[in-house]
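Re-run requested by the PI after the first attempt was lost when the workstation crashed. Everything re-entered from the original request form. Ligand of interest: 5-phosphoarabinonic acid.
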Amino acid sequence: MLNFVIHKRTEQTEQDYKELLRQNTGILAAAQAGEARYADSQGWLDTEEWAGERKVAFLEKLAEDIRRNADAFVLIGVGGSNNAARSVIEALRLPGTPEIIYAGNTLSPNALNRMLKQLDGKSVYIDCIAKNFETLEPGASFRILRNYLHKRYGNRAAERVIATGTAGSSLETLCRENGYTFLEFPHDIGGRYTAISNVGLLPMAVAGIDIRELVRGAADMQKRLHEGPAEENIAYQYACLRNALCRRGYRLEMLSSFEPQFRWFYKWWIQLFAESEGKDNKGLFPVASEYSEELHSVGQFIQDGSPILFETFLDVQERQDSLIVEPDGLKDGFDYLNGKDFWCINKAAYKATLAAHSEKLPCLTLEVGAVDAYHFGQLFYFFQFACYLSGRILGVNPFDQPGVEAYKKWMFEALGKQGGREE
Ligand code: PA5
């Protein structure tokens, strides 16, 4: 389960928060019902739509076939097309499953050559995920990897190519004409909201992750956030509080935890909030900190620097692991740790950090039951729904990304693509 705890805050923030809770119940009700104006972006609101039983069973079977034959699975995608899968895979991939290699997220020839080198001697499958099959990074990598497979496997290469794109897209045509496996990218979900669909679930399943549990976690969270009184809705509380803090001049939200398994989840979360809220000269800049390492770098700024940020901790509740510090008889000055479990030492570091940071900045904690597939499902749905609410309270469209489109147009112009930037 997820639980939301708000630590010490100022009287002003408290007042603003309560006011926002009172004022925005209409936004919560509209989001729960689904809003007609965002109909082309809300396919994720009901997990059943793109991750119902039949779809999950199909993906499990496809992943099993890939696992049987592949040593390496290249996930080609950028932004919303790969962040969710990567965040779970890097935390939970099972031993003995294909190595997951990432492409489509860089234009550096050095990185691309290194990626190709990683494939040497391995049985390779690829999945190109692109909603709008115009994005340069995945498109260019897909071509390189297709050529690589054709050179290595000749006319059997097609069996190893999967692509995930919208129905009727040029990517679908390419697949149909060349015998590649085609999976549907939901037409009614934007990239960063697609964790619980073919986009996120196939790569996760290839890595041996229990996608059924992940979907169950998301569906349970959906149920929880769609019923009960507004003041008890944790996504609504979080959305109102971050807006209250934003109004009081906080400009950054930092997501942090003492569990390195969340390393890639931060990237998903950053993209979700940055692309959804950073527009019309508004929004909080999302950043992340991996503790305890970052306490020895940005920790100084957090405690003592410009008061521009507040912090949201992810705190894991169930003991995940255990490692006892044994005495070794040497005088190294660390005997105070004798017999202690790293699980407890790490928890003590969290509590100490929370106490120290709370003296300086507003801190919230999202308590996460465990780092497992079920809770990743809960986290995805929770943050997606909270982001939707938060964007609406902020007064922006949480589902578009006009700023990113601007870069793409300039880029196409620079490379001489027809239909680039128009004056
Ligand atoms: O969330 C989004 O919509 C974006 O981050 C996209 O996922 C990203 O730009 C990749 O787009 P595409 O899948 O069309 O290549």
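Saved to the shared folder this time. The pocket of 5-phosphoarabinonic acid is lined by residues 78-81, 130-132, 135, 138, 190-192, 275, 401, 404 (CB under 6 Å).
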